[in-house]
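Lab notebook, page 48
Experiment: co-folding of the full assembly
Goal: obtain a model of how the components sit together before planning crosslinking
Operator: M.T.
Materials (sequences as entered):
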Amino acid sequence: MNLLNQGEPNRDASYVLYWAQMNRRVASNHGLAYAAELANEHRLPLLYYEGLTCDYPKANRRLHTFILEGVPDTARELARLGIGYTFYLRRKRSDANNVFYRLAEKAAAVVTDDYPVFIAREFNKRVPAKLKVPYYTVDSSCIVPMNLFEKREYAAYTIRPKINRWLPEFLEPAPKPKVKVRWSGPGPGPHTEVTADNIAKLVSECEVDQSVPPSLSYRGGAGEAQRHFKHFLEHSLRRYARERNEPSKHATSSLSPYLHFGHINALDVALGAREYAAEHKLVADEFLEELIVRRELAFNHALFSDKPAALESVPGWAQEDLRRHASDPRPEVYTREEFERAETGDDLWNATQKELLLRGKIHGYYRMYWGKKIIEWSATAEEALETMVDLHDRYALDGRDPNTYTNILWCFGLHDRPWFERPIFGKIRYMARSGMERKTDTAAYLKEIAYMEQTGVDPFRLK
DNA sequence: ATCGGCTCGCGCAA
DNA sequence: TGCGCGAAGCCGAT
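Observation: model returned without errors.
Model output:
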């Protein structure tokens, strides 16, 4: 927990305010639980505010739909716990309502999410000074709070022992938000009522890019997140270590969209996987390594980098290699539009891009190939990076996340080691189509993507 | 099928 | 100061 301003509690306050910026969930939310504690101290009720605006960069139908799908779950849970809920959908850019500031004026204190990238990073810098009341941020994203680390870690092997030392202390269920003064009735307006039936209509009324359709595969919400998690435990965890890099086997958790929007807490995923593994005599080590060590390494990278998504944040040797090879001839070069439309000369690469377009995420292993080839086929490294970030911002349900930026920069050498010298890449790890063929069943993947493209149905969508 | 070399730098042991 | 080893590989030799 961090207090980010000199605010004094408001004596005439009507509630304590929790502002869900990134962790859009009720269960297992350390920030919300802390807000409930403050509310109890002030003998006030607790109000949960969540907004969705149309004017953040590249806002679109896909992202809006996913976020709105989470709202009914949130409303139900909050009502059960006696916590007030104001959700506001700002449909038009001309809408002058600034609901957060209006609600904050009547709050004894504000609690929100500590988050190291995108809008929350900027808001948490700018907003506290504008408020008269205390403004707290709580890290409800990481298992080991990212602020406990003192510096940017060099690689997984440097952060791993530190995480392992802290884990026994932090791998405990989050406290529940138990309020003493229950909220009765609706939250203070303006409030937008969201039901499963009106989501499509609400989104169509928003001034956002309507050309990006909702994901074929993932619907938002805490309930959906739990369903995916349960399916993963029962059908995939035991295969994870062996088959996680084989996309056609579907052995990964598919939780990244839910982790990104906070519909599920990584802490609960870790606890649940550990418990399931113990009960069923399975080994969850490989999954926990990715969920905890690599995910938290990404948050560490974002927190301690001035620009988490810039080439200046990759190691010196890699930057130097990119510079040295900047004028190497590129045998193939594609424009951003050709990448976007999946129109390169490589059908496997095109399939990965189609997976992004249709599902809203790319399988983790193939995404590395996707990124490496964009580097190889772009005029400059800077342009390659821009293409990757832009395509994720618009199409990925797990974009705009510390993991996204870290996975993209990994393609440029971040958290990786040098390998042998070659054109364009220098000593940055290269990936070849032949390697994909050798190690994975590319034919099965191509078939699966082609089926989705032709039918508009994801055969692996959770029923 | 499997193995070693490629190459940098962190962090711990000495 | 030396040394082991690292987030997902490639390539050529055996």
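Interpretation: Residues 154-155, 157-158, 315-317, 417-421, 427 of chain A lie near DNA strand B (CB under 10 Å from a C1').
Next step: discuss with group before ordering constructs.
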